[in-house]
Structure formats: structure tokens, C-alpha cells
Design goal:
Structural class: alpha/beta
Radius of gyration: 24 Å
Strand content: 5-15%
Shape: globular
Helix content: 40-55%
Distance between the termini: 69 Å
Number of strands: 14
Largest sheet: 6 strands, parallel
Bound molecules: nicotinamide-adenine-dinucleotide
């Protein structure tokens, strides 16, 4: 089957490469000419494990190609996927649908008048957008056969290929149109052989499923973050609490890792957009409103945690930030907790040094005034506190002796709970985690250990 994908970012490119790997003939289109040029030259413009190999293989077999022009590929395609960005609209938090509607108008102009084309919305869009898209296409191309389908994407950056190829489910929202349903079955046929459930719903329901899913996960993270704060007060261990409740099948273990608050390209904007839609329809989602407020406060509160770890004052001190992206295995900096944390640290008077294994190029675009370094050890050089913000694998086995010697004061704030207190303290560090209870030993005693270690 011939497929055109409009928008070749994290979702468009991964979807395009995976659909080509299923055997379809896919053209990925983008208005960003530099991006398409890179892709044609075999360069991958984003960091996503395994994507380079997948793109190379499918390009070689001529199942995957790239273009800035959509006319030909859309005219020839049976399914046209819209995978452009839907960021928060500046000012009010509604989803900004400018890119979607622009893409839809371009697609409408290129539709083949002689047979059915399914226009598949893969971008996360507010409920009712499919109706609007249908209206636009009908206005632009009266009489041309088409169907508008909602097919929200649930992939996670960093594990995107596995998520696309082995999803928990596929959701397809389609109004009463068996031909469109059949085309969608054909698109995902290889997955049915693996018995992936496909859920056909009405279009509006599919649109809501995506928002409800993300809102629920954001709420789950926020819930355990609040329990972590309580654990700190009660001297209980949030990891054990998470396990204790997560083993209950009704709750589940995932998304119960306490940390600095959720960020990324989806949860922040999608929770806001859901709140706005719900308010507009006089059916507020108060749990999600509260979730957003708590998460915003939390991101900022993390800098106060660092201030405390440094003895109450950061003026004139240096903080080493390890990890800048919102999670490991991506270069995505959108709404990363590191952004508010670093802002808070700078406001408190700290000099901030930072390093991320893949996100430096993106970080440079969104965070000012940071001394960027080339690895973890250079970053902690002369620092008074080191903070782990993103749990990249390379931060999971740090050489604490080397770090201790490089730092002015060996203090580690582990916002991802990747170490255990006993291990880190045994290396002479003062250690602060998120919600695992038990007070750290007094600083003086720890310093003694370090002096011994350095000697
Ligand atoms: P992105 O910003 O990485 O990519 C969007 C791409 O679309 C850009 O390359 C941009 O140049 C291109 N584009 C914009 N207008 C265009 C047009 N008219 N024609 C052709 N190309 C155009 O965005 P993303 O992260 O891939 O997200 C896309 C959508 O998928 C969003 O709605 C997002 O919420 C949703 N989503 C994202 C993820 C994720 O993990 N990133 C997961 C699930 C769903």
C-alpha cells in the first residue's frame, strides 16, 4: 500500500520508517527542507535508538523516501497520515492547530479524485478536530471521495520503534465507513498477526482516548510524587510504597517512579489542552487541573531541594546538572524539568554547569547561561553539588572516587533515585534522593569521610 506521511518529526519519521518496514511504500514529507535534505543524505535529525538502521534499511529497499513536495505522494497514496506538531497555543493552553489545518488544506488540494483516500490524523488533536478536518476537505474538494480517521499515537520517545511495532493496542476512530476501516486494517495488518488488539471507535472517542490516556499517566506520576513528599516527612520509602501498591494488578507498577515532575513533548501540553476542552464544554476535569498545578510547583521546588542540599545558600556556588532531556534516550528538550530547575538554580545565584549525552544541541536552544561540558566528570569539576536530572545509563555507574576528587564539595542530589544512599554515602558523599526517607548523616561527618578518601 502507498502511504504519505505529513510531518517527519518524532512521530512522523518513526511511523513512516515502521510502516515501510511492514512492507508499505511510504513517503515522509516535511516543510522543513533542511530536515528532508538530511534524511535523504542518510542523516537522522532526531535521536531515537535504532531509527538510523531502520531508515537506512527501508531507504535501501526503496520502501521509504523523503520529500518536501506532497502533491505526487498524496495523490498516489491510499492513506495519508497527518503527524505535524500540535503545541500549546501561546497564551491560553489550547492545542495550536495551525500546522494541522495548513497540512490538511495542502492534502485536500492533492487528493486523487478517482478513488477513496483515507486522511488519518495521527497528531494529538482536541475532540472535534476530525469533524473540522472533514469540513475543510469537503469545502476545498467537493465531490472527491475521502474519509477522515483518527489514529492517535501512543509511542514513547526512546522506545518508539518497539512501541510502534508492538503496541498495547491500536485505536482507530472512524465514522460509519467500512472501506476506510478496511484500509486501516490493511495499514496495520502485520500487527494483527501478532494479535495486537485494534479498537475501532467513533472518531471523537478516539480523539478523547489519547488525551484521557496521557492525562491519566500524568496524574499517576503526580500522585507518586506527592506520596514521595509525604514519605520524606514520615521517614518512609516511596520506592517500597510504589512497589507495594504497584503489585496490585488494579494499580500496576508503571509510572510510579517519583522524580522531578513530568515534562516532555506530550504530557504538559496534552493535559493543558484537555483542561481547556473540558472547561469549554462546562465539564471541568478537576483532577487534571490539580495535577498540572502540582507538577508546575514541583518542577520549581526541585531547585529548593538543591539549595537545601548545598546548605541553604547557592550564591557563589557551582551546581553540576547531569542530564538535560526530559527522559533518557531522546534529545527532546520540550518542557524538560531541567529547564525550570536550572532557572531556579540560577535565580538562587548558582553558576550552573550542564551535560547531556544526546540533548546538548537542543538544550543550547532553550537554556541560557549554562556552562556546557563534554562529560559527567568535566561537569562536576569544582562543583558544590551534582544533580542527576535524567537517568541516562551512563549516569548509573558513575565513578564516585573520581567525582569526589573533582568536586569542591561532594554532594549528590539524585532526582531519579538511581543510586542507593548506602552506596553513595560509603563513597564519602552527602546524598539527597526523592522520598526514600531516613535523614542523611550530618555534613561534618561526611566531609571527614571524603578527606579520608582523598588522602
Ligand atoms: P515534531 O515537532 O517532532 O514534528 C512535527 C514535524 O511536522 C516537524 O518536522 C515540522 O516541520 C513538520 N510540519 C509542520 N507543518 C507541516 C506541514 N504543513 N507539512 C509538512 N510538515 C509539517 O512533533 P512530534 O513530536 O512528532 O509530534 C507530532 C504529533 O504527534 C503531535 O500532535 C504530538 O502531540 C503527537 N505525539 C507525539 C509523541 C512524541 O513522543 N513526540 C507521541 C505521541 C503523539
Amino acid at each position: 500500500m502507498k502511504i504519505a506521511i505529513i510531518g517527519s518529526g518524532y512521530v512522523g519519521l518513526v511511523s513512516g520508517a515502521c510502516l515501510a518496514d511492514f512492507g508499505h511504500e511510504v513517503t515522509c514529507i516535511d516543510i522543513n527542507a533542511e530536515r528532508i535534505e538530511k534524511l535523504r543524505a542518510g542523516e537522522i535529525p532526531i535521536y531515537e535508538p535504532g531509527l538510523d538502521e531502520l531508515v537506512a534499511r527501508n531507504t535501501r529497499f526503496k520502501r521509504l523516501s523523503f520529500s518536501t513536495e506532497l502533491e505526487g505522494p498524496v495523490h498516489d497514496a491510499e492513506a495519508v497520515f497527518i503527524a505535524v506538531g500540535t503545541p500549546s497555543r501561546r497564551g491560553d493552553g489550547h492545542a495550536d492547530l495551525t500546522y494541522v489545518y495548513r497540512a490538511v488544506r495542502d492534502v485536500a488540494a492533492a487528493l486523487n479524485p478517482d478513488r477513496l483516500t483515507v486522511v488519518v490524523d495521527k497528531s494529538t488533536v482536541p475532540v472535534g478536530t476530525g469533524d473540522e478536518v472533514e469540513w475543510i476537505i469537503r469545502e476545498e474538494r467537493p465531490g472527491v471521495p475521502f474519509a477522515v480517521v483518527s489514529n492517535p499515537e501512543f509511542l514513547r520517545e526512546g522506545a518508539a520503534i518497539a512501541d510502534f511495532k508492538r503496541p498495547d493496542r491500536i485505536v482507530v476512530g472512524v465514522e460509519d465507513d467500512e472501506d476506510a476501516r478496511e484500509i486501516m486494517r490493511e495499514v496495520y495488518r502485520p500487527l494483527f498477526l501478532n494479535e495486537t488488539p485494534i479498537l475501532f471507535t467513533r472518531r471523537r472517542t478516539a480523539e478523547l482516548i489519547k488525551y484521557a490516556g496521557n492525562a491519566f499517566l500524568a496524574m499517576k506520576i503526580t500522585f507518586i510524587n506527592e506520596i514521595a513528599d509525604l514519605c520524606e516527612r514520615l521517614d518512609a520509602d516511596v520506592q517500597d510504597v510504589a512497589l507495594g501498591i504497584g503489585l496490585d494488578g488494579r494499580i500496576g507498577k508503571k509510572f510510579l517512579h517519583a522524580g522531578p515532575g513530568y515534562g516532555g513533548s506530550c504530557f504538559p501540553k496534552d493535559t493543558l489542552a484537555l483542561i481547556k476542552t473540558a472547561q469549554d464544554h462546562e465539564s471541568p476535569v478537576r483532577l487534571i487541573e490539580t495535577t498540572v498545578a502540582i507538577n508546575d510547583q514541583r518542577k520549581r521546588a526541585m531547585s529548593r531541594k538543591v539549595v537545601q542540599a548545598a546548605g541553604g545558600d547557592l550564591r557563589g556556588k557551582t551546581v553540576a546538572v547531569l542530564g538535560l532531556t526530559f527522559k533518557p534516550n531522546t534529545d527532546d528538550m520540550r518542557d524538560s524539568p531541567a529547564i525550570s530547575l536550572i532557572q531556579g538554580l540560577q535565580d538562587a545565584g548558582a553558576l550552573v554547569r550542564g551535560f547531556d549525552p544526546e540533548g546538548m544541541e537542543e538544550a543550547l536552544k532553550v537554556i541560557d547561561g549554562v556552562e556546557y561540558c563534554t562529560d559527567a566528570y568535566e561537569t562536576v569539576g569544582g562543583a558544590d553539588v551534582a544533580v542527576i536530572v535524567t537517568e541516562w545509563d551512563q549516569f548509573r555507574a558513575l565513578d564516585f572516587d573520581r567525582m569526589g576528587k573533582a568536586m569542591r564539595d561532594p554532594v549528590l542530589v539524585d532526582l531519579r533515585n538511581i543510586y542507593t544512599r548506602a552506596d553513595v554515602e560509603a563513597r564519602g558523599f552527602r546524598y539527597v534522593d526523592v522520598g526514600r526517607g531516613r535523614q542523611t548523616p550530618p555534613p561534618a561527618m561526611v566531609r571527614e569521610n571524603v578527606l579520608r578518601l582523598r588522602a
